[in-house]
Amino acid sequence: MLEKLTIYIADDQTLFRKGMARLLKSFSFVQEVKDAANGKEMIKLVKEQAPDVILMDYEMPVMDGKEASAYILAHFPGVKIIMLSFHNENNHIIEMMQMGTHSYLLKNAEPEEVKKAILAVMQNDFYSNDLIATAMRQGLVKASAAKPKITSLSDREIEVLKLTCEELSSKEIAEKLNISDRTVQNHRANLIQKLGVRNTIGMVRFAYEHQLLD
Fold first, then answer.
1. Residue 116 burial (C-beta neighbours within 10 Å; 0-12, 13-18, 19+)
2. Which parts of the chain register pLDDT below 50?
């Protein structure tokens, strides 16, 4: 059962920020919500107490979401970051995914998708939607000789990679492949090491780059 979460929201638009905070507080799995008007304020909050999830606006004065996310991912790797933006351009989305953020939502997303994204990043380390999938297909299918080769992975590792990209949990993958949960976790750890990525979203990028997904 998911423990109660602490979630922070960073956005320079007061009405949006306060409205999002009220929405988050309405979710049964949320225990505490704090908000900040820019990236600098968010980093200060995180230093005082690291949250489980941050909803981070892409564009803010003083310090934007990109700079704040880079700092938090480097110094607080356990924190999940979901980017929020009005921009749906592929280059913005790909940039944030390459940085290691855990999802990307448009600021006009439905409340139900916000809830779904939070639960997904907590359970599976990332949340994908049509926006992210399209950006990755169009912008990341450029495997080069410098990148890890698909031949370096075992058939079982490729199976686990594909199922991970379908947002299945370790337990669900274990049941589907008739192996133990611990074995799945070992395969995921091996994938992260072999691919030279930091988290699950890096594994997803690799899968798109090598056209392993439909």
1. middle
2. 141, 143-146
